[in-house]
Amino acid sequence: MKTYKHFETERLVLQPTTLADAEFIFELVNTPKWLANIGDRNVKSVKDAKAYIQQRMITQLEKLGYGNYTLIRKSDNIKIGTCGLYDREGLEGIDIGFALLPSYENLGYGFESAKKLIEVGIKEFHIKLISAITTKENVTSQKLIEKLGLKYLKTVKIPNDEEELLLYSLEC
After folding, report:
1. Strands (DSSP E) along 32-149, which ranges?
2. Which percentage of the chain shows pLDDT scores above 90?
3. Confidence of residue 138 (pLDDT cuts 50, 70, 90)
4. 12-16 vs 151-156, strand pairing mode
5. Partner of 68 for a Cys bridge, out of 31, 36, 57, 129, CB 3.0 to 4.6 A?
6. What pTM did the predictor assign?
7. What is the pLDDT of residues 17-75, one digit of tens each?
């Protein structure tokens, strides 16, 4: 299997998500905030998580060389969340997204990891447009997206989703 780059920040290792992360992904995608703000991905078991990782994460990683990264805290090697660059249907540019387990929210990890991925997205993957989407209710995410330098553009609907989302972008 081909190996893909991992990245580091002061406090985190950003490692491409693999099937070995299935238990963690199962936990993360079933947290209340994930379900409310990102949506139910119908991951009801670790086996479902493996299928989700293979179909939604590894496929893009193999195609583009980047995708979803598991965030591992350096101080104790605990998996605390994910951050990624996604080629999302219905959006121009590459979407940046992030999610943390509840006990690791509001500690700066989302900003730290997303800032790093924007940096490498531009420098190493030559991404020209970075987008972000979030729900109208997710004010915390909106503030983080704006802190990263993305500007609000408009509301959008992405394919297979009826909810109106806020679209932000950053031209690189």
Report:
1. 68-73, 79-86, 94-100, 129-134
2. 92
3. very high
4. unpaired
5. 57
6. 0.95
7. 999 999 999 999 999 999 999 989 999 999 999 999 999 999 999 999 999 999 999 99
Secondary structure (DSSP) of 9-60: -SSEEEEE--GGGHHHHHHHHTSHHHHHHT------SHHHHHHHIIIIIIHH
- Crossing angle of helices 139-147 and 109-123, rounded to 10°: 40
Which domains occur in the chain, in start order?
7-171 (3.40.630.30)
CA 25 to CA 29: how far, in whole Å? 6
- Distance, in Å, from the CA atom of 141 to the CA atom of 146, rounded to the nearest integer, reads 9
CA-wise closest residue to 137 among 172, 115, 163: 163
**pLDDT tens digit sequence for 108-129:** 999 999 999 999 999 999 999 9
Q: Which residues lie closer than 8 Å to 35 by C-beta, 6 or more apart?
A: 29
What is the Cα–Cα distance from 150 to 58, expressed in whole angstroms?
A: 26
CA distance 164 to 124: 32
Structure token digits, residue 1:
């299997």
